[in-house]
Amino acid sequence: GENVEQHPSTLSVQEGDSAVIKCTYSDSASNYFPWYKQELGKGPQLIIDIRSNVGEKKDQRIAVTLNKTAKHFSLHITETQPEDSAVYFCAALLTGGGNKLTFGTGTQLKVEL
Amino acid sequence: NAGVTQTPKFRVLKTGQSMTLLCAQDMNHEYMYWYRQDPGMGLRLIHYSVGEGTTAKGEVPDGYNVSRLKKQNFLLGLESAAPSQTSVYFCASRSLAGGYNEQFFGPGTRLTVL
Fold first, then answer.
1. How high is the mean pLDDT of chain A?
2. Distance (Å, whole) CA B28 – CA B64
């Protein structure tokens, strides 16, 4: 099955700085890579995703890059704000058989004033 | 649209007790999923369903059963709760239409087994 590794497990940045979270996956057949943000006491919410036929996608202050050859993808948050503080999860999807997502172990991002 | 809702929000059980967690979605999604979330382990798939009347095992199915009698509901059952099942449980749903892959999550159920 698929295995997703995520680093770092915790990340502390100053407000206005950039934050980068990295994930690697094991199955080259995975073709969809979402990023979820989870605020305290809530369920995960999709913030950005990328498909395997695209190398980069950007949405305002967040961007995701994908390197299929190396089997890794990254989340980039620029101009961080206190409301960006949350746990972020990456995931990889193998189509077929229920289209199951395999999640990374999460990154606790803290944006300090 | 309420999206994905879960009941109850919190529950405390004693070892050996049984309970059912209910997930409901009003988006007419075909796929539904149950995950558990434990510290440092991310979200792990327990069971899932690709349509009404169908269920399948995920990564960590032992000790759980599920049923999907109606398209909008997905039930997760614990027949004999164990302390190892203390966790936060999330339900999610996904549309089959147009290859749109986003999974929408509920707010979670925090379960403690004493």
1. 94
2. 25
